[in-house]
Write a structure and sequence with these properties.
binds glutathione; 2 domains; single chain; alpha+beta; oxidoreductase; methylarsonate reductase activity; 4-stranded mixed β-sheet; EC 1.8.5.1; Glutaredoxin; glutathione dehydrogenase (ascorbate) activity; Glutathione S-transferase Yfyf (Class Pi), Chain A, domain 2
């Protein structure tokens, strides 16, 4: 199936019995979470990319919130990135991602709850226009990175939050971390630069994550993210940007 985004008016691509499908958007960090899990577990899945400005009616009928990601198989519809990742992990248990240890499981959930404290200032900084606001958001981002640095350090030898193998939380966090370098370039402001020496454990995690086939398979480099966010900033998101190469 073509990866070109489906906009309003485009016909519904018929589903096939027993075939898993993801409704996605190529630059969406939430949908990337699901695609990371799909790739990590080698789960065959067809991809239907959606134009989130001009959403097709059939997409809104599937998920009235109008958000990606959504998984679909036969009569089952699974929206929300965290729910999709948990469902995939339960239905395809090989390469298990959720920790078995109840304490680790609880802490993965807590770490995920705190992610909003990183996502908020990340997008806040992207939208910010004046320098003092950018500085404030940069300080918030750095504070929360420090928090994750300490938590990751407490997980033992690493390099992942899941130890020697990634856990579900590694994939929930990665898409947002991937976008941090783009933010510095986009805003042309060094105050946003990640200070690797202050977060050595996270920096090693970043390196290890980039080696994972699932990450290689789903990621965009910083400049591609910058160009995507520029298109968003102009009010004309280019959903099919870099489609030929990616
Ligand atoms: N809570 C949702 C958030 C998903 C989300 O915000 N997706 C964005 C794209 S990155 C979206 O679909 N936006 C379209 C809209 O909100 O109308 C999740 O975790 O899946």
């Amino acid at each position: 199936m073509s990866l070109k985004s489906h906009a309003q008016g485009s016909p519904f691509p018929p589903t096939k019995p027993g075939v898993l499908r993801i409704y996605s958007m190529r630059f969406c960090p939430f949908a990337q979470r699901t695609r990371l899990v799909l790739a990590h577990k080698n789960i065959p899945c067809e991809v239907v990319n959606v134009d989130l400005v001009k959403k097709p009616d059939w997409f809104l009928a599937l998920n009235p919130l109008g958000q990606v990601p959504v998984l679909q198989i036969d009569d089952k519809i699974i929206p929300e990135s965290t729910a999709t990742c948990d469902w995939l992990d339960d239905v395809y248990p090989e390469n298990r991602l959720q920790p078995v240890d109840p304490y680790l499981k609880v802490w993965d959930r807590v770490l995920h709850e705190y992610i909003s404290k990183l996502i908020g200032p990340l997008y806040g900084a992207m939208r910010a226009t004046d320098a003092s606001e950018i500085e404030m958001k940069a300080a918030e981002i750095k504070k929360h990175l420090q928090f994750y640095e300490e938590k990751l350090k407490g997980r033992g030898d690493g390099p992942f939050f899941g130890g020697s193998k990634p856990s579900g939380f590694d994939f929930l966090m990665w898409p947002f971390y991937e976008r941090l370098p783009a933010l510095t370039i986009l805003k042309d402001n060094p105050v946003l630069e990640i200070e690797a020496d202050k977060i050595p454990t996270l920096t090693a995690w970043d390196k290890a994550m980039r080696q994972l086939p699932a990450v290689k398979n789903t990621m965009f480099n910083a400049l591609s993210h910058v160009n995507w966010y520029k298109s968003v900033g102009k009010g004309t998101p280019d959903y099919d940007m870099y489609l030929a190469e990616h």
